[in-house]
Structure prediction request, 344 residues.
Amino acid sequence: MTPSADLDAYIAGLPKAELHLHIEGSLEPELMFELARRNGVAIPYDSVEAVRAAYDFSNLQDFLDIYYAGAAVLLTRQDFEDLAFAYFQRAAADNVRHAEIFFDPQTHTDRGVPFGLVVEGLIAGMDRAKAELGVSSGLILSFLRHLTEEEAFATLDAAKPYLHHFIGVGLDSSEVGHPPSKFQRVFAAARDLGLKLCAHAGEEGPPAYVHEALDLLHIDRMDHGNRSMEDEALIERLAREQMTLTVCPLSNLKLCVVDDLKNHPVPQMLRRGLHVTLNSDDPSYFGGYVNDNYSRLAEAVGLTHEQVTQLARNSFEGAFLPEADKAARIAEVDAYARSAGVLG
Ligand code: HPA
Ligand code: ZN
Prediction:
């Protein structure tokens, strides 16, 4: 076996958690066509190949425009269940044992799809994944930051009857021009409801947005965080506080956050002691699920078996799971590493 084939096989068998996945971004073109047909919704593409060919982005907004348009085929409870279960089948094939998935309720409620229908469909898919695939999961309600604070509060209100279904809230969509400070009060209200807090920060936005996410939103976990590497004091703080970063290499490449995977900041993040995890973000749009993110990054920057093991450990450590569960799952990672001769 070549060294990279050996590392790919090791990655494939490694137990992992996925902490940064937008369920709407896992809508594969084949399912998009099936749902369009089932629901009688027109889509502006002739074929699956034409959809894939449209996935050529120069920045975050290019992607978001297509991603929101694609979600228009999702209408019924069954659609959301099918979407979720299709993701979990891919995740299980990658040995993902636990996933904390975002959904964007406003993308659906703004089209007249009821909040409860979306949640019930996704939860049905998550329950099936646990029963049939052995993959556990949690659901994170993500606010669209290009919309107003008032709309975010209305979304949090709509969520209240379903609160027991959520582990946390997130903040996504167009970053530049929509700083975390805009959602300070919504995040405080979400925390008062007992929810964990995450926010996308430093994907395209400046290090100042990362500071705001920490100081004003008081996040428990940071999504992306790449541009933190421009700010020495921030790097030291993230290392000191052991803030989990949910980094998404293939997303960063497709959205031109990095020009080449060879220049991805993960090796520097690891060297500086940051608590990095690897995730797929919107795998249907960015060309790969979790194992592809590990393997392609490892190949590009030369990660070792020990480093990919650490990334998998971090994924469970950074999950919103009880401490005993985390310890048990990290023990599984370590047992796997020992059986492969990676840990002594
Ligand atoms: N960034 C911001 N918003 C998003 C993303 C992302 O990577 N994916 C889905 N919505
Ligand atoms: Zn994301």
User: Anything to note?
Assistant: The chain has a mean pLDDT of 97. The pocket of zinc ion (ligand 2) is lined by residues 20, 22, 172, 200, 223, 281 (CB under 6 Å).
